Amino acid sequence: MHEPLELDFSVKYKHRIYFTEGAFNVSNPILAQLLQSDKVLIAVDVGLITARPTLLTEIGAYALAHKLSLTRPPFILNGGEASKADDKVAQQVLAAIESDKICRHSYILAIGGGAFLDAVGFAAAIAHRGVRLIRMPTTTLSQADAGVGVKNGINTFGKKNFTGTFAPPVAVVNDFDFLLSLDTRGRRDGLVEAVKVAILKDAEFFNRIEVLADTLMQADKNILGEVVRRSAELHARHIAQGGDPFELGSARPLDLGHWAAHKLEVLTKHRLSHGEAVAIGLALDIICAREIGLFPAALAERVLVLLEKLGFQLYAPEMHLEKGRLLMEGLEEFREHLGGRLTLVLPVKLGESTQVHALDADVIRRATDELKARASQ
Ligand SMILES: NC(=O)c1ccc[n+]([C@@H]2O[C@H](COP(=O)([O-])OP(=O)(O)OC[C@H]3O[C@@H](n4cnc5c(N)ncnc54)[C@H](O)[C@@H]3O)[C@@H](O)[C@H]2O)c1
Ligand SMILES: [Zn+2]
Fold it and tell me: Which atom of ligand 1 is nearest to the CA of 150?
């Protein structure tokens, strides 16, 4: 009488990521093979068009050569953090899906930075309860991390990613040629996610980034591509094979440095990019890990030096607002976003991490003070 009907079911996903160059060269078959449908809607980040004005012509020629059924010329929309600061871009995409009669068998190809992919991906995930999405990340950060995952989202109530879903894309196409039009800041941004995932999962990769550090900021797509690719692989492998792709538990094992980073992005009103905020959050977590005896001091120094060598500032005055109280709120917001018990990942050595469930306010204060002193040296 009181026994429930219980039915187990599972859904199999394939996480497919292509690494390529010249995706819109007519001779490159990847997109033509992926976009076989009678309806394709292409959405492009306006910042990308500004940086690479020939892109629209390239897309047009490619679509013509491969007889792609575009429902309209590429839909150019706001990019950058503004595109997910409210629901405007998401609503524009929803309206296009409705008016172009995009269905669950059609494709949306989203081309742009991580913020843009988050906003367009959110619209694609909720329209008809999920339209097929192909992501083309175009920044180092989105190719190395944001774009190769399964999440999307927009900010609501002033909170990062408050509204969003888990929705694996049909495929991700990482075209290293896009990285060439990034400015120094844009190029640097994604490297911090590579450093982060190397600390957590791959000591060899960390050593390799150290070796490449001096050359990484030059616009050499082979060197940049090597680091971006390894970072994407480590992130994607963790998501697909780490046992919790939809983050049902209380841990976010790849989010080293992110509790503070998310708060700092908001506190600085996005003066700091995601990558810049993660660099500070990473430095903070590393010092905290050292302070509580988890992470050896010599390794902590190597991490800080590497981040500085890559050109990251490791302090923002907002960390000390209201004697650090505002930054501390980030811990609770991080816990709230996941629910359950506070769970932070901290490294114990390069390539290995552990979980902690509390971080003392004094430890955080010592770490912020140290970063301030270090920045003024
Ligand atoms: N969904 C996820 O799993 C996930 C993971 C990590 C980060 N993120 C999100 O990703 C966002 C950050 O992404 P981002 O670092 O790519 O920044 P971004 O999307 O804000 O892009 C930065 C700027 O670069 C421009 N741009 C894009 N491609 C370009 C190119 N090839 N050349 C020149 N300019 C170009 C954009 O128009 C924008 O102005 C954050 O909102 C973060 O929360 C999401
Ligand atoms: Zn990140």
Answer: 3
How far is the centre of ligand 2, averaged over its atoms, from the C-alpha of 191 (Å)? Answer: 10
Closest Cα to atom 22, ligand 1: which residue? 80
CA-derived radius of gyration, the chain: 21
Which has the closest alpha carbon to 45: 94, 102, 115?
115
Q: Which of 305, 327, 312, 320 is nearest to 272 (CA)?
A: 312
Contact 34, 169 (CB under 8 A): no
Which tens digit of pLDDT belongs to each residue from 170-211?
999 999 999 999 999 999 999 999 999 999 999 999 999 999
Q: Of the residues 17, 84, 118, which should be mutated to test ligand 1's pocket, given the most ligand atoms within 8 Å of the CB? A: 118
Q: Which token pair is 67?
A: 């007889």
The separation between CA 318 and the C-alpha centre of its own chain, rounded to angstroms, equals 23
- How far apart are the CA of 142 and the centre of ligand 1, in A? 6
- When pLDDT is averaged across residues 114-135 and rounded to a whole number, the result is 98
**Topology of the domain covering 17-182:** Rossmann fold (3.40.50)
**pLDDT (tens digit per residue) in 64-78:** 999 999 999 999 999
How many other CB atoms are found less than 10 A from the CB of residue 189? Answer: 27
Atom 35 of ligand 1, nearest CA residue: 48
- Please identify, by atom number, the ligand 1 atom nearest to the C-alpha of residue 152: 1
Number of CB atoms found within 10 A of residue 43's CB: 27
CATH number assigned to the domain covering 242-375: 1.20.1090.10
Of 49, 120, 141, 163, the one to substitute when testing ligand 1's pocket (max ligand atoms within 8 A of C-beta) is 141
Residue spans per domain, the chain: 17-182, 242-375
Model pLDDT for residues 278-314, shown as the tens digit of each residue? 999 999 999 999 999 999 999 999 999 999 999 999 9
